[in-house]
Amino acid sequence: MISLRRIFEGRSGMIFHALSSILVFFIWRITGMPSPGVLGRLVPLSWLITASVYGKGGIPRLSGYLLAAFILFSLFWTLDPGFEVIAAAIGLLGIFPGLLALSSRRFGIQLALLPLIPIILLLVPFTGDEPHFASITERLISSRTGRFTEFSSQMGDPGGGITHHQSFYPALLIPGYPLSVPGIRGMNLLYAMAALMFMSKLFRDSGYKNWKQLTVFGFLLIPGSSILGLVYPGWLALAVFLGGVCAYLRSKNAAWIIAAAMTLVLIKFRFIGLSIGLLAALLIESKGRKRVFLSVAFVCLVAGGLLFDLLILNGRIFWVRYGNIAFIKVIILQPLYRTPEVLLAAGSSLIDIESGLLPKAPWVLAGLAGLHMLKTSSRKMFVWLGLPALCYFLILVFWNPNEWSGMPTPSGRMLLPLLPVLLASLGLIMKRKGVRILVWVSLGISALLFTHPVLRFNTADGTDSLMGRVLGHFSNLTELLPSAVRLDIAIFAGFMILAVIIIVLLKVRSRYTEYTIASAFLLLCVFGGLESNSYEAEDIPAEYRNYCTIYPDESDLELRKFWFFSREKMLMLSRKDDAVILPIPRNTGDSLELTVFYRSLSSGAESGIEVSSGEWSDSVYATSELMETPRWVRIMRDTQLPLMPENLQSIQSHFIIPSADCGDSIRITALGLDNRHGRFHGIYLDRILIR
What is the pTM of this model? Predict the structure, then answer.
């Protein structure tokens, strides 16, 4: 008894996590929560691993409350589809206070990552760019057909056997290849851990008292958690970037920065912004003749690298992809003729519901608010972390405005290089009012995406997987969230203004910060509970459709990236039996107003739409006109847009339905379709508004 007492003395935290793992396991089964064999085992396993590495220490203050919240939501998960998702997320969120407490101990950062590894390796779908990187790794080992060779090419590849992915990063995955997907993901976990170690060293050397906790936030918060362990080069690039900075600050040898800058370009040419920022920071920190010498050396290195690529590598790194007249024209024309798209890309990187940071990581507001304090308190951190991040961000939005790649893709994966500077500024204002709310909401969202990883993937179609799963596609909130694909300038501007207000309040330490944040969340919850009378046609569920199909289909998720105008999907009515049948909303008054936004492609007989309800019906015939080729495209090449649905002008048709004549539903069908006038002949519904 005495020996047992000594063993467990001071280990209440370990005992709590061990007992909680058993409790979560049985509660999951008693309440009948979904996925008891997978998620119902992985979440308790995370609690158990936390207990095994926790050692001495008390019970984290928030863990008990989160465990109680899990029990509550699991008891009532059948009341709403979103409750099941939230319950599972809270079940995992309960270990986060323990992971943060664990971080302060020896090897605490490494130990804090362990409970999440089973979920990362076993639960996250192998999709997006992951199979393409794996296929390159496979081809580097053997030319024979293997498990990944069907992913050998993507739309947008330069051709001639040259993919737009480079081989340096896939080559570094070779040690994990024999273990298949878990093996190559395990290699990425090692690269993430290396980046975290370099990050923790920078925070520690800069005098942060909470440097270990900040580092753990790096992989618990989005964007760090969104691709943690996945086969994407972001964490490797971050390790090279931070490793070069750490080595230079320790030795003052410029060779480390130059080597890091060159390696980043080899990993992925997208990281050239980080390279430019590193070299710019090195020039700023240098003085006199050293600055002149480094400037000349940079020019010589770039010229030498381009010649080596051209003469030895046959242009596989730069010249084939970017050293052609078409790409140069795009770079020149971008600021002149695509300024709105560039500005939209910059804004959507923050607030877009699919790809933006703020909807999934509201803690970024605190990070942005602390940048000024970071500049004044630690100029070294501001220059070495902030300047590369800024250069990367500017080049990213300037280079590829509103273009995604590797879809479906996790939210925020392109913005991982911004993580260190945002965490550095967050650490300086962590104790200000409102910051902890933002951080814990962000941790909750991150836990939700850990437990339901399929919800982290989006396809640039204007809908967010997470919001659609929790709220449903017919929630009024889906119309009020900012989307770069389904652009509404007023909503977009409103959220930008709200973000700026919260940043300013955090910066000036206003006592109204928490009230503003809480009010914003409350309003979103209220609007989210309202029923919507607006339907995005492609989101209409199958029970409201009769034989309709989505255009374009899912055979190539990259296809819409190459459209010049709206990138929204549409609902295609191509046969006379195709129809949309919508319920009549409550409290319609004397009449019901229906507005249909659509495109009509007619290559033969005239086509149109018919709306009917009960004994009432009305119809209209119309054909969309072909839109004019964008000016920047005409300057690059003499071309005319093909007669395709995505290149047609939208039509609005209004219908007034007397309430006395209304039936139980509204039926929308296409007219003039006889399947004899071409593959794309038909009606393409975009949006339906009922008032």
Answer: 0.89
